[in-house]
Amino acid sequence: MNGSAADRLSSVLRPVHAGNGFEEALERILRIIRLGLVADGERLPSERELAERLRISRVTLREVLRVLHEQGLVESRRGRYGGTFVHARPAPAPTADAAELRRRVADVDVEDTLRFREVLELGAAELCAARPLPPQAADRLRAALTATRDAAPDDYRRHDTLFHLTLAELSGSPSLAAQYSAVRATVNQLLDCIPLLVRNLEHSQRQHAALAEAVLRGDRDAARAAMREHCAGTAALLRGFLA
Asked: Which residues cross the membrane (predicted)?
């Protein structure tokens, strides 16, 4: 890739945060493709360059490229002039259900929704950790965490929703819980517009476990930090796919 082409990518190919390396790297490369910074048929920077500029491992980068390949957005070519090439062919015609879903979320202010969701989630996490949870409440949180861990991929988002609603309800603020249930419904509409990625689900589950552990030991700072990182990962995926 020549100098001018590399310069075009400098504002996007920035180091990702360690906690959400996969999600943020996927968001950045999706942005490159969506913005046309690398045109259809052109080659992305080498794996070595991408990994160095994003500051992620080659293993993580290859998982990102695999997702993009599965979505039909890139293709790999071997040989002297090989590499990963943008292949942003038009998506197949959506089904009636998918078209209706996109119509319903077309007027959603994604950034406002994500910011409001983060405010409520961080507040709920801190409130839950601010005081010892009664045994019954602690058991309820553990059960919600276990349900997400054991959920089949096609049922994961439902249990993910229930886990977060449990935290909101255990916060002790009925108003917060009501507001969260409303914004979560909008977030789920957005999530239903993007692919279900196994790597992201596994990462999300580790974040859930860290969050529940922080709440149960009463560590407010750790609970907020875990929730902030978790929300940032979801936001990165949504921005990448829905931009």
From this structure: none
Q: Report residue 33 as tokens.
A: 């493709």
Q: Tell whether 192 and 167 lie within a shared domain.
A: yes
CATH at 133: 1.20.120.530
N-terminal to C-terminal alpha carbon distance within the chain: 25
How many domains, the chain?
A: 2
DSSP 192-233: TTS---HHHHHHHHHHHHHHHHHHHTT-HHHHHHHHHHHHHH
pLDDT tens sequence across 47-64 = 999 999 999 999 999 999
Instruction: Give me the domain span that covers residue 178.
Output: 96-242
Q: Give domain status of residue 91, yes or no.
A: no
What does the chain come to in residues? 243
For the stretch 183-240, pLDDT in tens is 998 898 889 888 889 999 999 999 999 999 999 999 999 999 999 999 999 999 999 8
**Residue 229 and residue 127 share a domain:** yes
